[in-house]
Design a protein that fits this description.
single chain
Length: 354
C-alpha cells in the first residue's frame, strides 16, 4: 500500500469514527450542553482530519480555507466541551459563541489574506499560539476541578480524554510553529494521520466503556429527592452511620463554613478513605460535585439569615461570607441557581410575605 493510500485510510477511519460519535451524542444527549458540545467537537475534529497537513505554505486552496478555519475554531469548542463535561452546572453564554467566531474568523482571514500576502509565519504562529492557550485553559480547569468531581467513572476518563486531545493538539501546534513554510513530506502526514486515528479510536473506546449517565447528567437531582426515593432497606448499616455522622458535621459544626474545605479534610474528620466519602456523597446522597454539596448547605443557612427580621440590616455579602462563600459573585450565582431569585430579591419577598 502506498503512503498516500495509507494516509487516506487513516483519515477515512478517523472521520468515520468521529461522525459515529457525533451522531451517537446527538441522538442520546441532544438536550444536554455537554452532549451537543461533544458532537460539535467531534465534527470540528473531522474538519481537522480532512484539512490538516504538517508544514504550511503561503497558498491555501479557497475550498480548503473554511475547513482549516473550522478546525482552528474547534479548539474553543474543545475548551467549552471540557467545561460542560465535568461541570453539570455549566451553561453556554453569548460570549462563548463570540470567542469561537473570532478565532474561526481570524484563521479564515489568515488563510485567505494574511498568509498569501507574505506573512505566513505570522499567521500560523498566532493561530497556533491561540490553540496552545485554549489547551492550557482546558487542562488547567480539569486539574482545578478534579478534586470536586464525585463521579468515579467520570473522574477516571476525564484526564485521559483531556490529556490525549491536549497532547496531540499541543504537539501539533508546536510542530506547526517550528516547521511553518516548510514542506515536510508525505511521510510526516501519514504518521500524523496514523497517530490521530489512534487518538480518536482510544477516546471513542473510552467514552463507550463509561455509562453515558455518568458523563452526561440529564437531570440535576437534590439530596432530598434521592433520599426520599431510596428505600431505607437498601442502605447498608455502615453507610447509614457515615451519612448520619456527615450530616452532624454539616448541621451541628457547620463545617461547610471552613475556609478551603476539601473532601480530603472531611474524610479525615470522618476517619474514612477519601474515595469512600466521594462514593457515599455521590451514590447515597445523589450529588455529582462536592462544591454543589457544600453550597446547598451554605445556601440553606443564607436563606434562613435573609428571612430573619433581626438580620434585615446585615449586608448580603456578610451573610454570604458567614455561610462559607469567599466572594459575592459565586454566592449570587449559586443562590439564584437554587432559588430562582437573587439574595436581595429573596430577602424582599420574605419581608413582604411576613
Amino acid at each position: 500500500m502506498t503512503l498516500a493510500a495509507t494516509e487516506f485510510a487513516f483519515r477515512a477511519a478517523s472521520v468515520a469514527l468521529l461522525l459515529v460519535l457525533a451522531a451517537s451524542l446527538v441522538s442520546d444527549f441532544r438536550n444536554v450542553p455537554a452532549g451537543w458540545l461533544g458532537a460539535a467537537f467531534a465534527l470540528g475534529s473531522a474538519a481537522h482530519v480532512v484539512s490538516y497537513s504538517v508544514g504550511t505554505s503561503a497558498l491555501v486552496p479557497t475550498w480548503h480555507a473554511p475547513l482549516i478555519a473550522l478546525s482552528t475554531g474547534n479548539i474553543v469548542v474543545f475548551w467549552l466541551f471540557t467545561r460542560a463535561l465535568f461541570d453539570d452546572e455549566f451553561r453556554l453564554r453569548w460570549w462563548h459563541g463570540l470567542v469561537w467566531a473570532l478565532v474561526t474568523a481570524f484563521s479564515l482571514i489568515g488563510c485567505l489574506w494574511i498568509a498569501p500576502g507574505g506573512h505566513v509565519r505570522f499567521s500560523v504562529t498566532i493561530v497556533n499560539l491561540i490553540v496552545l492557550g485554549f489547551i492550557a485553559l482546558a487542562v488547567g480547569q480539569t486539574v482545578t476541578s478534579w478534586s470536586a468531581d464525585l463521579v468515579e467513572h467520570r473522574r477516571r476518563v476525564r484526564v485521559f480524554i483531556v490529556c490525549a486531545a491536549a497532547l496531540y493538539g499541543g504537539l501539533n501546534a508546536l510542530l506547526q510553529i517550528l516547521v511553518v513554510g516548510s514542506d515536510i513530506g508525505a511521510i510526516a502526514d501519514t504518521i500524523n494521520a496514523g497517530v490521530l486515528a489512534c487518538v480518536v479510536a482510544a477516546i471513542a473506546y473510552t467514552m463507550m466503556r463509561v455509562d453515558g449517565a455518568d458523563l452526561f447528567s440529564r437531570v440535576t437531582t437534590t439530596a432530598s429527592t434521592v433520599i426520599l426515593n431510596q428505600p431505607a432497606a437498601t442502605e447498608e448499616a455502615a453507610d447509614q452511620k457515615l451519612i448520619e455522622a456527615l450530616m452532624r458535621l454539616m448541621a451541628d459544626e457547620r463545617i461547610y463554613r471552613q475556609e478551603n474545605i476539601t473532601i480530603g479534610v472531611l474524610a479525615t474528620r470522618l476517619k474514612i478513605p477519601e474515595y469512600r466519602l466521594r462514593r457515599l456523597i455521590n451514590q447515597r446522597l445523589g450529588y455529582r460535585n462536592f462544591n454543589v454539596f457544600l453550597n446547598e448547605h451554605r445556601i440553606e443557612e443564607a436563606k434562613a439569615a435573609l428571612a430573619d427580621p433581626a438580620q434585615a440590616e446585615v449586608p448580603v455579602i456578610t451573610i454570604a461570607m458567614d455561610a462559607g462563600f469567599q466572594s459575592l459573585g459565586p454566592f449570587n450565582r449559586a443562590f439564584k441557581a437554587v432559588t430562582g431569585v437573587t439574595p436581595t430579591e429573596y430577602r424582599r419577598l420574605r419581608v413582604n410575605a411576613a
